Amino acid sequence: MRRQLYRAVWMVLCIGVLMVAGGILLAAFLSGMIDDAMQEYLNTRTEEYRNKIYEKMDADYQILDTFSSIVGGAALMEDEEFPKLLDQANYQNDFLTMVYMDASENITAATLDHEVTENETLSNIQPEAREVLERAMEGERSVSPQFQGELSEENVVVYGTPVYQNGEITGALAASGKIDVFQEILDGDTLLEGFGCVSMIDGEGNYILHSGKDQTGQELINVFAEPYFAPEEAAEARKELQENGSLAFSFRYGGDRYRALIQSMGINGWYLFSMMNTRAGSGEIYLMNQVAGTVFIGIILLVLFLMAYGLRMVWKNGKKLNRIAYCDSITGAYNMLRFRQIMEERTKTEKNYSIIALNVHQFKFINEIYGREQGDRVLCCIKEKIEQNLEDREFFCRENADIFYLYSGDTDRDRLERRLKKIMDSVSQAGEGRYGNYQVLMCCGAAIAREGEEEHTLDQMMSHVMLALVRARDVHQNNVWFFDKELHRKELMENYVESHMNQALEDGEFCLYLQPKVALDSRKTAGAEALVRWVRPDGSMIYPDQFIPLFESNGFCVQLDMYMVESVCRQLRAWMDMGTEPVPVSVNQSKRAFYEKDYISRLTGILEKYRIPAELITLEILEGFALENEEEVNSKIRELQKKGFRVSMDDFGSEYSSLNTLGKIRINELKLDRWFLKEAAAGKRSVKVIMEQIIQLAHKLGISTVVEGVETAEDDRMIRELHCGYGQGYYYSRPVSAGDFFERYLKQE
Ligand code: C2E
Ligand code: MG
Ligand code: MG
Q1: Which atom of ligand 1 is nearest to the CA of 622?
Q2: In the chain, N or C: fewer CB atoms in 10 Å?
């Protein structure tokens, strides 16, 4: 979800950036187009102005040329009336001065105020005019640069043209006019449609004619200066102009942008400098561009706003969905899904951690008696108390009903126990008095994972926590139970045993093992004890300690004991059929089997089936249950003895042993628990004395004696000394399979 949101945010940003970039490109493209169009416009208009100026010059030349051909053709200069003629021509044509110079450099000059000067010499003429006259004498038409005329305060220019007589140059005509005539052209009302101005400048950028309509309104004396050119650009621009004869550029002034063009006029190193305000100049296009730009930016902003709004909605909905997906609706705590996610993430790196399950005792009664609302309040209170006691990096969830899980980096049992008790006690306190006499009690199951110890998957850890919680529920008070590996192993085994016992019995997995009982006087194998072994299909063996107690409590031992009696009888029959002299075999009998109603008939039935004399079978009953109900046990023993069975009291001394017992129960054999040997071997003399007394008493009562757990030669020597009848233990032999037993103790060579 978050990743999708990030992706969406990125997408919106990218689209935004792309749109902005697109907008900028489009704006640049449009403004480039406008610029080009403007430049084109400037070029054309400048050309037009240049042509107009040329036309004006041409007109002046035309007048001079016409006058020159009239003068030359009719040799009017030699006429007396020539000065007058010159004056008239000057006056009619609006020149300031008209001058004729003959080949001897005699000059006749007519000025606007009808003054005619004759016999003027060339040296008295202003240098700019002199140059024009000299060039005309050489046959060249030319115009002078501007200069301050003598008769005018304004700048003037002088045109010069040769005068021909019969094809030969006989003189030169020159006329001066105010340069302002060009100004009129430049200042025309329609000058660049009123958005620009045109000036005339020289090659150095100095103004010759400054347009009165310069939009910058500056008192400028040179073009190669601010605001047209930055000081560092001026030299470069000047060079470019000289090389190319024209220079197009743009500049900014007063917040407006201007396009400008300097174009050579091809006369006297004069240039036309035109410029126009791009905003004003581009008129509708510019406006359109502006509007389009604004609309475009508006659209971008709108799109971005909509996207941002959409994202916000998605984000909000995402949060809501997250809450629904990851939080418990009643308490607002995380739910199991989120808890597992965080846990999985954490345990990738954390190897020391604990998982704790907290549960309310009999929560369903709170719901039933006080209503769901109260139940929910208890849950919220638990959530609050856990939250208040959370430490750094701990987190928790409510799974369902009243189970909360807590993840902690703490693996110290005592500290965890203290903290959890505090949480549970505070929940109990918060509920005090609310539910009458009912006290809210909780229990905790905890599982600890430590680095270096056996590693468990999270699923295993969670099941350990639940197992611990089941144990914790047994105690009706605020308590914590930590998962115990050994206990769990035992529980697993019990579970296996209980779920497989029937099938195992059917499949013959319960096997008969025999341990010899040695007659201490003759050192011969005088009998054997049948001991069951559960051999699993994979060959592994389960020993009686791991299943007999369970079978005793679930009653399966009734079936197993009969099965073992039958196994023994089958084995005896097999040996007898082989012609081997069998030895009596003791079979352990559980209390349950012994008390079965048809116990004796079932036993005799088996014996009959295999045709085994009852004397070969000794039934071992435990000391404990023999004493529970003396009379019933005694009558059953008597019945069994009548049928020929022998009865042995097993593990004598391990529980309520008292010498009285021997007198009360009518047994044939007494098996002293291996506890005696262990204690005696450890040097306890008193134990040895008791053993001796027991053995003597048993003998006096006609009961044969067997000492169990003979493990060493020393044990063997001691029980001999005590005149015990038989010994049984690893010293003689461990329990072995029936086949091995036959091979070792019965087979006659
Ligand atoms: P138990 O009847 O007292 O059997 C003697 C136990 O002591 C056997 O353990 C045997 O292997 C062990 N033992 C023998 N010699 C020595 C020794 O020198 N040192 C030590 N430390 N132990 C020795 P096992 O076979 O594990 O049987 C344990 C108990 O399970 C038996 O104690 C018996 O009470 C019960 N049991 C065995 N098979 C059956 C059966 O088929 N039915 C019933 N109801 N109980 C059985
Ligand atoms: Mg036994
Ligand atoms: Mg025993």
Answers
A1: 34
A2: C
Q: How confident is the model at residue 285 (pLDDT cuts 50, 70, 90)?
A: low
Three-class SS of 600-643:
HHHHHHHHHHHCCCHHHEEEEEEHHHHHHCHHHHHHHHHHHHHC
Contact 655, 623 (CB under 8 A): yes
Q: What is the pLDDT of residues 670-721, one digit of tens each?
A: 999 999 999 998 888 999 999 999 999 999 999 999 999 999 999 999 999 9
Q: What is the DSSP code (8-state) at residue 399?
A: -
Compute, in angstroms, the gap from residue 171 CA to the centroid of ligand 1.
159
Q: How many CB atoms are closer than 10 A to CB 458?
A: 14
Sign of CA dihedral 563, 564, 570, 573: negative
Whole-angstrom distance, CA of residue 613 vs CA of residue 395: 72
- Give the homologous superfamily in CATH for domain 336-483: Reverse transcriptase/Diguanylate cyclase domain (3.30.70.270)
The ligand whose atoms approach the alpha carbon of 593 most closely is 1
Q: Which residues contact 192 (CB under 8 A, 6 or more apart)?
A: 42, 45, 198, 274, 276, 281
pTM beyond cutoff 0.70 = no
Nearest Cα neighbor of 176 from 106, 82, 112, 105 is 112
Of all protein residues, the one whose alpha carbon is nearest to atom 42 of ligand 1 is 588
Domain 493-746, classified CATH 3.40.190.80, yes or no = no
Residue 383 Cα, ligand 2 centroid: separation in angstroms? 56
In CATH terms, the superfamily for domain 75-181 is: PAS domain (3.30.450.20)
